[in-house]
Design goal:
By secondary structure, the chain is mainly α. It contains ten helices and no strands.
Length: 166
């Protein structure tokens, strides 16, 4: 990321204005290597320049926060998503459910899964169901994992989950 930042600074020094793609790459890169605060600096710069982040960028930030167990930062990022009316995606569900389940907050993971998918009319896909099933299993809730698997089968995405554990 040092090289990327040097190139970015050269871009600024030359008088060119960064575009959405370059700012997004900086945010995602810093979040991917665990430098969330640095990524959020570029995120704030993006906002100051009038760019509206998309759900993929928010997902990258949320994933970085999750890997660092930065719960308070995650809450702030989710608030920003809502403020900007950026619709969460299945990837958002996966990140949140994995994080919450991994932190032993299965009830919150379930609530988030149900509420977010209902509120934003997300057609839940196999990776999101698999994340919820994993969260149930890792929290010792086998019957709930089986119920969730049955729901995934009803939605015709269970086959992908089944192949994951076979």
């Amino acid at each position: 990321m040092d090289k990327a930042e040097a190139i970015y600074n050269d871009l600024l020094a030359s008088g060119l204005a960064p575009d959405f793609a370059s700012l997004s790459a900086m945010v995602q890169g810093f979040c991917a290597v665990g430098h969330i605060e640095k990524g959020l600096q570029y995120f704030r710069d993006m906002r100051r320049r009038g760019f509206t982040p998309d759900s993929a960028l928010f997902d990258a930030i949320l994933d970085g926060c999750a890997r660092r167990s930065a719960h308070a930062l995650m809450e702030g990022v989710l608030a920003d998503m809502e403020e900007l009316s950026v619709r969460p995606s299945n990837a958002t569900l996966v990140v949140l459910v994995r994080y919450l389940g991994g932190q032993g907050m299965l009830d919150k993971a379930l609530e988030t899964f149900e509420e977010m998918s209902r509120k934003h009319n997300i057609e839940v896909n196999a990776p999101a169901y698999c994340a919820l099933i994993d969260a149930c299993l890792s929290n010792g809730r086998l019957s709930l994992a089986l119920e969730t698997f049955d729901r995934s089968e009803e939605r015709r995405v269970g086959k992908e989950c089944r192949s994951r554990w076979s």
